[in-house]
Amino acid sequence: MRVLLDTHTLLWALHQPAALSTTAQEVIGSAENLVCVSLVSLWECAIKSSIGKLDLPADFFEAIPKAGYCVLQIEIPHLTAYLGLPMHHRDPFDRLLVAQAQTSGLVLVTRDPEIAKYDVQTLLA
Asked: What residue ranges define each of the domains in the chain, with the CATH number in brackets?
């Protein structure tokens, strides 16, 4: 399986794995699966940390490759897909994650009910 972690899913996977569903824990923990983290999520975490809305461990960004997660860059097709999305969700970070998952053929691991309104495969975080 090829999955993309939503931002909250990434935080839980690295620091509170018990918060994840059993299925999400198994999928994320399996070496057989490709687990991706979007640059969008990393940017969101950096922004929220810099304005005091998120307390990140000092080694947060270094922990991502150590966990074996690939980092998904933002590509032109992702932005094109983003522009075509209906406005079900007002969060621009989440909308770009949806566009990336759609365009890249990834299952989005999330617990955000707004994302289910889009035509994107999801797995309950």
From this structure: 2-124 (3.40.50.1010)
